[in-house]
């Protein structure tokens, strides 16, 4: 990550956190926390697209993170920070096992098996009594010193994790991931273990999803198996697609916009299924590269000189 | 012995339903190389329409058989229209684009499910059996409705085999699924074949909904459950392979039947997933998949 991008994203994050600080009202503060979490989940989904796979198991990892955090806090009575990290690590651990087995498959097979995995993990929660079965777990509260300002914490942590993912994307490892997406045989030919690299990518994605799950548990205070169905992956995919997947800002923009619009549509009594459905269909048919791709397209088609392109790209970040 | 026969028959019946369902998924994947998540909506729409239209027709002086025939035809016709619309205004632009078509189909699922919930309500509906009564096979009572399901699955699987093997359209579909560019060079009208394949698959999905409606509680989300199992059957058998889809479906049917009896239904679902994972470790492209 170059210096300009780094400083730019820190400024953006600081502004977002300051905004979160200003929100006193319970609902709008929660809404902002949900946006941050949604952006984090969508960015995690985007991270796995670097190796060219659509990770529909993301919802399962969010759920695993939420349950692991909730279990650590309420039953093992571990401190807040430890239980949040436990959520991420547990999801990452399952991610390694899941990825090791399933990443031998590709494309449609991987996608569909991730989908099935999500549904099975959800079934497993309902069968474990200590996790509250069908009704789920309650009383997952953040510590007193964060109670008032949990939104600020959620926004800050999500922002830092998204930046870390971007840093990995720009590093040597990120280039390996993209190489695998473009042509895994070439990556294999220079002596890189393609399979384990893919497992690593999925596990990082799972870790981030797990942390997002832990944050969800602390924001909502209550979790149940129904919260982590494949719909969660679907919505994350909508954020990613609507925002645009070519740039890390895409999923953030998509998440902020769609979470806000769906909260508005809920107040009108509209169903959020129809809303998300139309958003996905229209985006794909009208602007296949998402909002961000559309902006980029408009800017580059208006001014074609390369220096201008350079400056617009920088100003967007 | 009696329990065993009972379980085998139940397994066959569940498997038969997944066969009809997964053959449709497979056909779409074969000709267009897309994963259609909205396939379950054809199932749901047909089942819902039958649940609503049968009492309507029966209440307007039609006989039992006539009312069913009308309701089933209307349900399947509506699904075919829906399928045509989805193809014309969506999947047509996303052929051979796996991620794009998948996301589009998810959009359609959310949209259609929302509409169905809005118009039909979330309440569960039930549909009476087409034919009342049962027959005794090896000391086990089997309702005619279940036999109809197995019979329909057999007939349409055989029909699909015949179409793919012996008709011009079927051969064209197979050619397209192997290499669509080479097929086009040979003068096969790819777009027409893709639409035909899509509509045949739609018909199979709707048919599954029609024969299943009396045996299941019909609700706007009923298709989703069958969709997951149908897809697992297809992955297990290998995408694009017709015998693979049949084997995968029967396998899942039997696990559901035996696992559900000796343990419980959610155990059966978990077992299916674990077994499919093991199968994929050995054969990443499914049992009958090539490569």
Automatic annotation (TrEMBL), chain A:
One of its GO terms (molecular function) is branched-chain amino acid transmembrane transporter activity. The keyword Isomerase does not apply. Coiled coil: none annotated. Keywords: Cell membrane, Membrane, Transmembrane, Transmembrane helix. It comes from the Bacteria. It holds the Pfam family BPD_transp_2. It is found in: Cell membrane. InterPro entries: ABC_transp_permease, LivM-like. It is a multi-pass membrane protein. The chain crosses the membrane at residues 30-49, 56-74, 80-101, 108-125, 145-168, 199-219, 274-295. One of its GO terms (cellular component) is plasma membrane. This is Branched-chain amino acid ABC transporter permease. It comes from Orrella marina.
From TrEMBL, chain B:
CDD domains: TM_PBP1_LivH_like. It holds the Pfam family BPD_transp_2. It is found in: Cell membrane. Belongs to the binding-protein-dependent transport system permease family. LivHM subfamily. Coiled coil: none annotated. InterPro entries: ABC_transp_permease, BCAA_transport_permease. One of its GO terms (cellular component) is plasma membrane. It comes from the Bacteria. One of its GO terms (biological process) is amino acid transport. This is Branched-chain amino acid ABC transporter permease. The chain crosses the membrane at residues 6-29, 41-59, 65-87, 99-120, 144-164, 193-218, 230-254, 261-282. Its main location: membrane. GO terms for molecular function: transmembrane transporter activity. The keyword Membrane applies. It is a multi-pass membrane protein.
